[in-house]
């Protein structure tokens, strides 16, 4: 895309500047995500972008999968920009072409004598499984046997052996380039560098959650233990009262003010760190229970997170009640079995009230979890739900699994994400921007 260049104008500088800034010259302004660039568009260019985005949207929504793929491949030219996450696709164009030709020739050699009923040998897999002589672990156990086997292969299948060795070298080069680009390889799969960042953020969140759920001594009701958030509210209110008291009435404050001042500051820091750990994971694509149950209609951090934190706290309290009921019934049944030497039938019917209460609690747990799962499924951008209760919860336990990268996108991918001022225009959508 080129910036607008007005026609030459014979006149003063002031007149030229005035003609460029006339309203009729510009129909829209767009921002290209990730570039830091804004572009002014004439009506013709804006209309062309709208038409292109609408046409692309129609292709993507085509119900027939074959027709949809044909549009995206032939008309949009997008499919060829997606490449499998394999070592050769990190190489430059000439090296990648060399790999393609060598793999095709290797496949011919490997399958030359294959019978029709036999499965075709995968040339790429054969290269991935290849190990040079000095990297073969058996070399240090039976050097003569292993080296003899390699020598025999070179003698009987010289071209095949040469191609595998050359492709192995190219694969190694591609793997090194992938590492330089920040990818992490594990078990033959590719992962983004952000996966390590996510794991660290999850550990930070767990530590912050542990601090947040500890119990604190109440200042209003000595001997009673309350939550961190309630304690922070009480401590701050106590300090405000101390500030408003007369010197005569503030003798109690003088003794313990410093303690509660330090405690309030520490609790405030713990709450802030806890909230930040939730937000950090959300920006990395992971929704904790607090984020999944948050109020999405407000933009303030405190207002958004508070319902989610309260909801998850309620989930954990309800879970503990259900676990306690289950354990109490289990203990009583165990005592009954011991007392009767296991000769009498267990009196399960005596625990109907407990069973009803347990079912009510588990229904509440299910409802909260389903609400969180439903909200995460609707999030834009998409996130994965990480759900770990404060105590062991076999019913709802979702840890985080690293997301492998299966497809790469070429640098010359012809789409750009644009943001436009028009409501019906290119508002936060992808359109042909080059």
Descriptive account of the structure:
This protein is an alpha+beta fold and 434 residues long. Among the domains are: 13-78 and 414-432, no CATH class; 84-191, no CATH class; 193-277, no CATH class. 55% of the residues lie in helices and 10% in strands. The protein is built from 13 helices and 13 strands. The protein has helices at 13-20, 43-60, 65-75, 93-110, 123-129, 143-156, 158-180, 194-212, 228-244, 251-283, 289-292, 301-339, 352-377, and strands spanning 28-32, 37-41, 82-84, 184-186, 189-191, 216-217, 225-226, 286-287, 384-385, 404-405, 407-409, 415-420, 429-432. The strands form 5 sheets. A 4-stranded antiparallel beta sheet has the order 2-1-12-13, covered by helices on one side. A 3-stranded antiparallel beta sheet has the order 4-5-10, covered by helices on one side. The radius of gyration is 33 Å and the shape is extended.
């Amino acid at each position: 895309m080129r910036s607008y260049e007005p026609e030459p104008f014979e006149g003063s500088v002031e007149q030229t500047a005035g003609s460029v800034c006339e309203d009729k010259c510009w129909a829209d302004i767009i921002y290209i995500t990730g570039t830091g660039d804004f572009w002014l568009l004439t009506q013709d260019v804006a209309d062309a972008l709208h038409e292109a985005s609408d046409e692309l949207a129609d292709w993507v929504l085509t119900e027939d999968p074959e027709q949809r793929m044909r549009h995206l491949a032939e008309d949009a030219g997008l499919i060829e920009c997606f490449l499998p996450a394999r070592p050769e696709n990190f190489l430059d164009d000439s090296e990648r072409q060399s790999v393609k030709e060598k793999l095709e020739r290797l496949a011919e050699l490997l399958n030359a004598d294959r019978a029709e009923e036999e499965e075709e040998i995968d040339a790429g897999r054969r290269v991935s499984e290849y190990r040079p002589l000095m990297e073969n672990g058996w070399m240090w156990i039976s050097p003569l046997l292993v080296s003899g086997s390699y020598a025999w292969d070179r003698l009987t299948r010289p071209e095949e052996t040469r191609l595998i060795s050359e492709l192995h070298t190219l694969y190694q080069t591609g793997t090194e380039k992938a590492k330089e680009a920040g990818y992490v390889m594990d078990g033959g799969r590719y992962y983004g560098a952000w996966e390590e960042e996510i794991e660290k953020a999850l550990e930070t969140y767990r530590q912050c959650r542990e601090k947040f759920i500890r119990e604190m001594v109440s200042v209003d009701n000595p001997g009673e233990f309350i939550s961190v958030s309630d304690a922070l509210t009480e401590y701050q209110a106590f300090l405000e009262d101390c500030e408003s008291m007369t010197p005569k009435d503030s003798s109690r404050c003088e003794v313990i003010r410093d303690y509660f001042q330090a405690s309030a500051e520490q609790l405030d820091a713990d709450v802030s760190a806890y909230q930040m750990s939730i937000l950090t994971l959300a920006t990395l694509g992971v929704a904790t229970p607090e984020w999944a149950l948050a109020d999405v209609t407000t933009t303030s951090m405190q207002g958004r997170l508070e319902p989610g934190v309260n909801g998850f706290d309620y989930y954990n309290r309800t879970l503990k009640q259900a676990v306690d009921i289950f354990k109490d019934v289990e203990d009583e049944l165990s005592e009954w079995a011991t007392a009767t030497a296991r000769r009498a039938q267990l009196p399960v019917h005596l625990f109907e009230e407990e069973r009803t209460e347990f079912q009510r609690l588990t229904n509440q747990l299910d409802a909260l979890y389903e609400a969180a799962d439903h909200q995460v499924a609707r999030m834009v951008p998409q996130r994965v739900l990480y759900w770990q209760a404060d105590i062991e919860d076999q019913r709802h336990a979702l840890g985080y699994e690293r997301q492998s990268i299966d497809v790469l996108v070429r640098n010359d991918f012809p789409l750009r994400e644009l943001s436009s001022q028009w409501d019906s225009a290119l508002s936060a959508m992808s359109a042909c921007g080059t």
